[in-house]
Amino acid sequence: MAIIPRVLRALGVAAILSGTVACSVAPPGGGIHDPYEPVNRQVHAFNTGLDRAVARPAAQVVRAADPASFQWIVNFSDNASLPGMVLNATLQGDGEAAAVNAVRFLINTTLGFGGFIDWAGPMGYQERSTDFGQTLAVWGVPEGAYVELPLLGPSTERDAAGEVVDVLLDPLEYLGTRPQRRWSLPARVGEVVVERGMFSDTVDSLLYDSADSYAQARLAYLQNRRFELGEPPPPVVQGDAESEAYVDDLLEDFYR
Question: What's the pTM value of the predicted model, to 2 decimals?
């Protein structure tokens, strides 16, 4: 029952972080709230440099070898994240999503050799992706300001708080197998590299071909995240229609 004190501690952290987020409320109209833009741009430059030096070359190797041959890494990583999704769906009051993710984890952990093979998907148990950032949104916590995090990239104050709680609250430590606990973090890093290879052209276009990659990444993240959460997208301001069309094309590349 050691998980119960851990849950209580994590929820206590969530309450503190949520209060911090609530102090930074976006202006009315669902616009882009970016009071930290100077610092965010410095972090964006760091992340872009890291991508150019490490992630992009690794992704090119993956792409040359065919990303589909690395699907087992993505499967393992996604499966290891399911206990956290079950917990978040439960906290959101979404029993159906919690049940589907729980069954998916059970099937793929047993029949799928720890999650390397996705047997649950063809059986109709598709992942119901969620996280603590979404849990906070369901609980009514505002989005807060836009932030770009080192290594992790675009986020908001609410989602950044969710990242912290997801790490503190991850039930995999108690429910996963020893290989899952040991290799979940390397697998998640590998998943990032594989997906970077899968969407190499789109990411390169965003980071290296756009006139202002920071503004484009910010708009792309907020559009996609607010769509996921059912929240109003950033409004189109005068002179920004071309930018939004560019971002819409990028998002279509990810989800087509």
Answer: 0.84
Cα separation, 104 vs 217, in Å, equals 32
Q: pLDDT (tens digit, 9 = 90+) per residue, 115-168?
A: 999 999 999 999 999 999 999 999 999 999 999 999 999 999 999 999 999 998
What is the per-residue pLDDT across 28-70, written as a single tens digit (0 to 9) for each?
A: 556 899 999 999 999 999 999 999 999 999 999 999 998 889 9
Handedness of CA 228, 229, 231, 236 (dihedral sign): negative
* Alpha carbon distance 160, 150 (integer Å): 11
Dihedral through CA 147, CA 149, CA 155, CA 156, nearest 10? -40
Give which of 133, 117, 161, 164 is closest to 226, Cα–Cα.
133
The ranges assigned to domains in the chain are 3-255
Alpha carbon distance 228, 174 (integer Å): 29
Which one-letter amino acid corresponds to residue 99?
A
Three-state DSSP at 153 gives strand
